[in-house]
Specification:
The structure holds 3 protein chains of 3 kinds. Chain A is an all-alpha fold. Chain A has 2 domains: 4-61, no CATH class; 76-278, MetI-like (MetI-like fold, Orthogonal Bundle), CATH 1.10.3720.10. Chain A has helices at 4-34, 38-41, 55-61, 76-107, 113-122, 128-142, 148-173, 176-184, 189-200, 202-217, 221-226, 234-239, 249-269, 274-278. Chain A starts with a helix and ends in a 7-residue tail after the last helix. By secondary structure, chain B is mainly alpha-helical. Chain B has a single domain, classed as MetI-like fold (Orthogonal Bundle), CATH 1.10.3720.10. Chain B is 69% helix and 0% strand. Chain B has 14 helices and no strands. The longest helix of chain B is centred in the N-terminal third of the chain and has 33 residues, at 71-103. Chain C is of the alpha+beta class. Chain C folds into 2 domains: 4-226, 3-Layer(aba) Sandwich (Rossmann fold), CATH 3.40.50; 242-364, Beta Barrel (OB fold (Dihydrolipoamide Acetyltransferase, E2P)). Helix content of chain C is 23%, strand content 35%. Chain C contains 9 helices and 21 strands. Chain C has helices at 42-50, 92-97, 109-123, 138-150, 168-185, 196-202, 220-225, 230-235, 270-274, and strands at 4-13, 16-26, 31-35, 57-62, 65-66, 77-80, 156-160, 188-193, 205-210, 213-218, 242-251, 254-259, 262-265, 279-284, 290-292, 301-311, 315-322, 325-332, 342-346, 353-356, 362-364. In chain C, the strands form 4 sheets. Chain C has a 6-stranded mixed beta sheet with strand order 6-7-8-3-9-10, with helices on both faces. In chain C, strands 13-12-11-14-20-21 form a 6-stranded antiparallel beta sheet. A 5-stranded antiparallel beta sheet of chain C has the order 15-19-16-17-18, with no helix packed on it. In chain C, a hairpin with a 3-residue loop joins strand 16 (301-311) and strand 17. The longest helix of chain C has 18 residues, at 168-185. In chain C, 39% of the residues are buried. The chains are: A mainly alpha, B mainly alpha, C alpha+beta. Chains in contact: A-B, A-C, B-C. At the A-B interface, helix 1, helix 4, helix 5, helix 6 and helix 7 of A face helix 1, helix 3, helix 4, helix 5 and helix 6 of B.
């Protein structure tokens, strides 16, 4: 005779099991797909049991086909590298510009402060094309289309407001008296910032850097409209596996796994700050 | 949006210009962004076509009148709202449900949470492509295959105008329901224990406690989830572009997608910006209202 | 040399006036205490001297030079914060060394080492120099805060209620230590507290602040024996002074304190004569009250009934009802009274205080 408590626990476990199957199932399926050969991958009905092969991975990274014969040079590594460059550059620039702005918003009182802060925030809630399309026109005229510089600049829209708002919260968490003590001890605002404030928000900066990197990496629409051949990112590259004539499902799956696994590893390290990051600092989580 | 202490005690900056100097670089970035926005609004009043960049002429409200008078616009408008409303409702309910299941700390919560964030960390366009594979029509798609095991005939999820929007809702829920779960988990964690203990001593039933105690205490979380999800789903793009590109037959053409067609496919920048301006306005109004509500609810 | 002068200093936070028209003179190497309850403006005053808070108006002079527009790092002050404000990411050694490492000071590593170890020895911190503040007890953190200020040998030492977060016994220990160390400071000390016994024990002179204003400045003896107004009299003393309202009337050409049927003769003084007819307050300190069972033969007594008696080990505090008023008196520990016992509350005339009811101004003080 089951107690109602046990019954409830079983229901709970079933509920969670169902949800997590839903959440993780598709990824597991794609992972399996990435290990299927070109016949298994389009098998109808789909195969759950198969012999795994690395041919997809080999094809998109080093250009070896199923029989380890060299084929045309794959573009995927180039997309990966491009995305790495753009995301890293974007985050570096945002960090440089945003850390000071965040500190300023956290510590000082000045006219238009909350207006400026709100304007930064408003980009989180604006439709991307609203800014991208006119930017496209501007970039055309200034030759910034399909350039790393142009994309890094445009990507600031994604990372800079985020970085400023979340870092602002971290700076505000430092007790004022500690910074005041450092001033009295003989340091200028810059000395205090460098030796006290920055070290104390190090974990926050690490979290924000990782999350910004992920957000920049995941972007599609900026890269599609403002990018081009030279700067093509993985998000565009993966879309490219779906051609008009044929779809390379296996390659697409392998590309997805290569794109996604590093991100998931990074995300694991910031999980303590994930709520704070996703809500732009509204919830300390 | 963070809750700032209302202390008026704020030291003035060492030099009056310092804060401006510090925010200046970010401010310049800001202006760099504001300029395109203003430019975009300007374009709505022109006949700007990308194929004839030199031939730009002000046409006043002609674009607006034409677009607002066309059923295509209103269909997109309606679809945008239907999608957003469905997605937000489902994610709120599902998010709260899963958060409640995860509430009682048991070993493994941390691991489950790290699994939870996975769908959100994948590029949305990649997730959408993943689902495109799973939702393949005929028995090739694994979802149809599984449904076939219980006797349901294969459905052309993304290819049938009746199910296309539903499929997109499914994909969005898959990607973003973890967000709701995380917010509610944080909300549930920070709830005070005493009212619950008092209610239990008073002999209140579980459902009553939930309705009268838990839900009201979770109001800030509900508002926050609604704020982020409503705005993001109003301006959804990646998911639709990866799968249906607005089809079939306009069944999934939202305002954002339609603006893309107008401007990039048909080069009609002026018209495209009109769609975007309307969408921007919707997002602006809702974000202001909801964040104001959140601040108010938080202060209570 | 470090004397501090505050001239007409005012501090406003928006509409709220935290400090109004403050004028203080602090002498070189003086241990100057600012006493007051929370919200009195004492911490604000300290922060203005340090430069952490800007003055709304007025001047602060150090050795005659105005410093109110200088940044904190440009003033030669050291401060011990109420919450200690230690640097969480630095070890105790580095916390103490921090002021010396400021770029403008150009101290060599050897000099720093010497200074830090010297201070650590004085304050008994040798054993935990490499630990982080989070791992220290309250008392240890307090020493680090003190050490950080000491290591610089500044012109001015500012202390913001440094002992208020310590438990009672530690507080008394540290108080004695601070008093003993005072000689080796060699600086002017401005010490803020809400604890009157700390103020009386440590200060050369005390300034009592209330609601942003200075009520009186004087030596401990002066402010205790001759408070300028009721507020100062109430602040100093625990249990606080007892008050009884009444009026000054004339009885056969002598001034008399009256309340209902009670009449207490007052000493002859032209000042008191001028205040005939005014509402006044009679003040008696608990330690000056004797509770007698037999009626005293002097006219300085009031009828009372025992309300409650608290035995506190070596002495007792008796609360007696005098009409509608409750008076507290200190008595011997072995003197036990019974509930509602009628007693005569008596005192010596030289221990009587009289204050004006409306302004609180003193009319009669100890020894008059």
């Amino acid at each position: 005779m089951m107690t109602s408590r046990l019954f409830r626990r079983i229901l709970k476990a079933l509920g969670l099991g169902a949800y997590f199957t839903f959440a993780l199932g598709p990824i597991v399926w794609i992972a399996m797909m990435s290990l299927k050969n070109s016949n298994d991958v389009i098998a109808s009905p789909p195969k759950f049991v198969f012999t795994p092969t690395l041919e997809n991975y080999k094809a998109i990274t080093v250009g070896l086909d199923a029989h380890d014969v060299e084929t045309a040079r794959p573009d995927y590594p180039k997309y990966f590298l491009n995305t790495l460059i753009i995301a890293s550059a974007t985050v570096a620039v945002s960090l440089l510009l945003g850390t000071f702005a965040a500190y300023s918003l956290a510590r000082f009182s000045f006219r238009f402060k909350e207006d400026i802060a709100f304007t930064f925030l408003s980009f989180r809630f604006a439709p991307e094309l609203m800014v991208i399309l006119p930017l496209y026109v501007v970039f055309q005229k200034t030759g910034l289309i399909d350039s790393f510089t142009g994309l890094t600049a445009a990507y600031q829209l994604i990372t800079l407001p985020f970085l400023i708002w979340v870092l602002r919260g971290f700076f505000e968490d430092i007790p004022r008296e500690i910074e005041q003590a450092a001033r009295v001890d003989g340091y200028t605002w810059w000395g205090v910032f460098r030796r006290i404030s920055l070290p104390l928000v190090k974990p926050g900066i690490a979290a924000v850097v990782i999350l910004s990197f992920i957000f920049a990496w995941n972007n599609f629409i900026f890269a599609m409209i403002l990018g081009g051949e030279r700067t093509q990112t993985v998000t565009l590259g993966i879309l490219g596996f779906i051609g008009y004539e044929r779809v390379l499902w296996g390659h697409m799956a392998a590309a997805t796994m290569i794109c996604v696994i590093p991100e998931l590893i990074l995300a694991f390290f910031v999980q303590n700050y994930i709520v704070r990051g996703l809500t732009f600092g509204a919830v300390k989580g | 949006m963070p809750d700032h202490a209302l202390r008026t005690q704020r030291p003035n900056p060492p030099h009056r210009g310092l804060p401006y100097l510090l925010t200046l670089p970010a401010l310049i970035a800001l202006i760099g962004i504001l300029y395109p926005f203003v430019l975009g609004v300007y374009y709505t009043f022109t006949n700007y076509t990308l194929t004839e960049p030199g031939n730009i002429r002000l046409v006043g409200l002609a674009n607006y009148i034409e677009i607002f008078g066309n059923i295509v616009f209103w269909k997109a408008f309606g679809l945008t709202f239907v999608f957003a409303a469905s997605v937000v409702t489902i994610e709120l309910v599902l998010g709260l449900g899963v958060a409640l299941l995860l509430k009682d700390a048991f070993p493994g919560v941390r691991i489950l949470r790290s699994f939870l964030i996975i769908p959100m960390m994948i590029p949305p366009i990649v997730s959408a492509l993943m689902w495109k594979v799973i939702l393949l029509p005929t028995n090739q798609g694994v979802l149809n295959h599984i449904l076939g095991l219980v006797g349901i005939r294969p459905i052309a999820w993304l290819g049938d105008s009746a199910t296309a929007l539903v499929s997109l809702i499914l994909i969005d829920v898959w990607i973003y329901s973890p967000f709701a779960v995380l917010i509610f988990m944080a909300g549930l964690q920070s709830m005070p224990k005493e009212p619950y203990e008092a209610a239990q001593v008073d002999g209140a039933s579980g459902w009553f406690i939930f309705r009268k105690l838990t839900l009201p205490l979770l109001t800030p979380s509900i508002v926050l989830v609604t704020l982020f999800r409503l705005i993001d789903s109003l301006k959804v793009f990646d998911i639709i572009y990866a799968t249906t590109k607005g089809g079939p037959a306009g069944a999934t053409t939202t305002l954002h997608i339609q603006s893309y067609f107008e401007a990039i496919r048909w080069f009609r920048m002026g018209r495209g910006m009109v769609y975007l301006f309307v969408l921007w306005f919707l997002c602006f109004v809702f974000s202001k209202a909801l964040s104001g509500l959140w601040t108010k609810v938080l202060m209570r | 040399m470090a004397d501090i002068v505050l001239e007409h200093v005012r501090k406003c936070y928006g509409d709220h006036e935290a400090v109004c028209d403050l004028n203080l003179e602090i002498r070189d190497q003086e241990f100057f205490v600012i006493l007051g309850e929370s919200g009195a403006g004492k911490t604000t005053t300290l922060k203005m001297i340090a430069g952490i808070e800007p003055v709304t108006s007025g001047a602060i002079l150090l050795n005659g030079q105005p410093i109110q527009n200088l940044t904190p790092e440009e003033r030669d002050c050291a401060m011990v914060f109420e919450t200690y404000a230690l640097y969480p990411h630095l070890s105790v050694y580095e916390n103490i060394a921090f002021p010396l490492r400021a770029p403008k000071r150009r101290t060599t590593d050897d000099q720093i080492d010497q200074a830090v170890l010297r201070v650590a020895r004085i304050l008994g911190m040798d054993t935990f120099l490499d630990r982080r503040p989070a791992t220290l007890s309250g008392g240890q953190r307090q020493r680090v805060a003190l050490g950080r200020a000491l290591v610089r040998q500044p012109a001015v030492f500012l202390m913001d209620e440094p002992l208020s977060h310590l438990d009672a016994r530690l507080r008394n220990e540290m108080r004695t230590e601070i008093k003993a160390m005072r000689e080796s400071f060699g600086s002017t000390i401005v010490y803020v507290t809400h604890d009157y016994s700390e103020a009386l024990a440590l200060g050369d002179r005390i300034a009592i602040m209330h609601r942003g204003r200075v009520e009186q400045v004087g030596t401990p003896s002066q402010v205790f024996r001759r408070p300028q107004n009721r507020l100062v009299a109430e602040t100093l003393g625990d249990p606080p002074m007892n008050f009884l309202s009444g009026t000054i009337s004339l009885d056969q050409d002598r001034s008399v304190f009256t309340n209902g049927s009670w009449r207490i003769p007052l000493p002859a003084s032209p000042r008191l004569r001028r205040c005939v007819g005014k509402e006044v307050c009679l003040g008696l300190r608990p330690q000056h009250i004797r509770l007698e069972r037999a009626r005293p033969d002097t006219p300085f007594w009031l009828p009372s009934k025992l309300f409650v008696q608290e035995l506190l080990g070596d002495h007792a505090v008796a609360s007696v009802a005098v009409g509608d008023y409750l008076f507290m008196a200190l008595c011997e520990a072995d003197q036990a009274y019974s509930l509602d016992e009628p007693l005569y509350l008596a005192w010596a005339p030289e221990h009587m205080y009289l204050f004006l009811e409306d302004t609180g101004e003193i009319l009669l003080a100890e020894g008059d």
